[in-house]
Amino acid sequence: MAKRGGFPGGMPGNMNNLMKQAQRMQRQMEEGQKELESREFSAKAGGGAVEVVVTGKKEIVKVTLSEEAVDPDDIETLQDMIVAAANEALRQAEEANNELMGKMTGGLGGFGGGLPF
Fold it and tell me: What pTM, to 2 d.p., does this model score?
């Protein structure tokens, strides 16, 4: 009579290895995410007249304006430069996040390439 249940062919050992790899990957992702969150990304606009600094958490922490950027008769240009610099700094932070995730999940290959099932 066939044995019911269990994992024929030593599957529990493979499952343990898979779980250990998953836990190691999770730790690496957490460490990488903490490192990313502590980084700062800056971007300038208007030839350097405006600089915006954001963290890896995508929070604006600093806006620097040069005197020549502040023209009371042309507030719209200043606003546009701030938006442009902020968006570029946020794009850099997002790119770094995507790069981190790509490194962490690169071996998975769409959940088929790196996993044994």
Answer: 0.67
